[in-house]
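Run log, item B.
One chain of 126 residues. Sequence copied directly from the ordering sheet:
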Amino acid sequence: QVQLVESGGGLVQAGGSLRLSCAASGRTFGTYLMGWFRQAPGKERDFVAAISWSGGRTSYGDSVKGRFTISRDNAKNTVYLQMNSLKPEDTAVYYCAADTASRILLGVRWEDYDYWGQGTQVTVSS
């Protein structure tokens, strides 16, 4: 069983920055692929970013490339999402997810992940 707790969401003006954190339980955090997804009202849950066990491989959704950075600290069982140059269209609930199935490829579909956090709201005002 893996528990994920996100934090760091809030209200920010367009052009600003936020850093989301996701703290994970469990002694084998370093073996999980981790991802971030987001869901705006009335829309599907979209892939934002993913990171490999060591942090050496990352993947990003097209809409956030060049603005968002995913990273992890395995010693702290935490994954981060640094969000810069935020836009109103980035407004959504952001979810942290863990893929504990020992996959090699970074998942970009929500079905690739088996544990989810409760989400944290990010609101970007224009």
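Observations after the first pass:
- DSSP finds no helices and eleven strands in the chain.
- The longest strand covers residues 92-99.
Flagged for discussion on Thursday.
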